[in-house]
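Please fill in the sequence for the structure shown.

STRUCTURE ENCODING:
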């Protein structure tokens, strides 16, 4: 069974078209109405879609997680996520599902950068490239678009992916968790339509900062000793250097350089905080891994 999952928030003007086009290529359409204040849910339901409603607006990531849960409940073999604002072309759904049906990938991302024609606004194009670079490593250089919501997920992927991020950072969280789970990620070129559409209900700057914050949080949680412990040790060493400078000044001039002493204390305490935090997170991570294995 192939399921189309559509996260939607106040999309009554376009949701009918999106649902009807998706129904041409999938067996079931599921719409997650993320606290809409209009007729989005009613329209989707009358057109035959399964509607799962959030009582209040919880964010893109929360809607995506709800769609994952519903797809698992329906025992879906494959889930395709499509944005509700009409920017994705449902006629390209078979392009996303093919690599999974041929057992070549577990997750397929529709990339806006693998084709010559790209009408994405310049500011958005630059932002997506920066976020993609942050969300992937050198081994994943083939991934060109980490933020496109037009994706396909296999049953195997659905079994591994449980999202914690409620906002737009969920797209990056999927990639980071897919890498840790050994899931194969592929891309296919897709065309996205921006003209005449309000392509995002979020401020672009706020959106970008939210994604960056998610990436940093997930990376730090994954390797706390590297990303917190080592910087913490460096801060302690810097604090010690300022402390020795303070002692040297006192030994030669018999006076305390208060500003240098305070700097030493600030660096030292911050470094110690980083080190203890990294050790605590590492211990929690190991405990969770041990519990999961059991």
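FILLED IN BY: designer on duty
SEQUENCE:
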């Amino acid at each position: 069974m192939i399921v189309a999952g559509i996260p939607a928030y106040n999309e009554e003007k376009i949701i009918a078209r999106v649902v009807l086009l998706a129904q041409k290529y999938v067996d079931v359409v599921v719409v997650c109405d993320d606290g809409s204040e209009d007729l989005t849910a009613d329209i989707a339901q009358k057109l035959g879609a399964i509607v799962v409603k959030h009582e209040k607006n919880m964010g893109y990531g929360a809607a995506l997680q709800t769609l994952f849960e519903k797809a698992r409940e329906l025992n879906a073999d494959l889930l395709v996520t499509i944005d509700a604002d009409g920017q994705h072309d449902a006629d390209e759904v078979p392009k996303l599902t093919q690599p999974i049906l041929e057992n070549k990938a577990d997750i397929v991302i529709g990339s806006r950068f693998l084709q010559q024609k790209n009408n994405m606004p310049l500011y958005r194009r630059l932002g997506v490239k920066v976020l993609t670079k942050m969300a992937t490593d050198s081994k994943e250089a083939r991934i060109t678009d980490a933020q496109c919501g037009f994706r396909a997920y296999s049953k195997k992927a659905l079994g591994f992916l449980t999202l914690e991020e409620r906002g737009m950072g969920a797209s990056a969280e999927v990639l980071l968790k897919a890498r840790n789970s050994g899931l194969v990620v592929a891309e296919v070129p897709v065309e996205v339509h921006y003209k005449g559409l309000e392509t995002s209900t979020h401020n672009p700057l706020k959106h970008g900062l939210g994604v960056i914050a998610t990436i940093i949080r997930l990376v730090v949680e994954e390797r706390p000793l590297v990303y917190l412990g080592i910087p913490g040790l460096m801060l302690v060493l810097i604090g010690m250097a300022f402390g020795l400078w303070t002692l040297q000044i006192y030994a030669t001039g018999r006076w305390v350089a208060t500003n240098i002493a305070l700097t030493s204390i600030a660096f030292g305490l911050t470094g110690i905080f980083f080190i203890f935090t990294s050790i605590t997170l590492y211990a929690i991570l190991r405990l969770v891994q041990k519990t999961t294995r059991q």
